[in-house]
Design a protein that fits this description.
Helix content is 80%, strand content 0%. With 87 residues, the protein is mostly helical. The chain has one domain. The longest helix has 38 residues.
């Protein structure tokens, strides 16, 4: 991926990679829980190829959304703790 990234230098690619990097730890924390919760709702033996892609995209969107919320919550907690420590 590092080799490929040398040739993909554009603003959109850098923005996407920047967002993924910023939320990567939060994504790591929530992804198994989301995958387990969503995949448990479907019989994966009967899901079509298109259905598999839709489930994958759904998982990615929910994971990113919850990682975003977790990151904001983390920032809020750290700000509050920092304010308490300063006083």
């Amino acid at each position: 991926l590092v080799f490929i990234s040398k040739y993909l230098k554009n603003k959109l690619f850098e923005k996407i990679c920047g967002k993924l990097s910023k939320y990567s730890y939060a994504i790591f924390l929530v992804h198994h829980i989301i995958i387990y919760a969503i995949m448990g709702q479907f019989n994966l033996d009967t899901v079509s190829l298109v259905g598999s892609y839709i489930l994958f995209i759904l998982c990615c969107v929910i994971i990113f959304f919850l990682a975003f919320i977790l990151d904001r919550f983390h920032d809020y907690i750290l700000k509050e703790l920092n304010d308490i420590m300063i006083i």
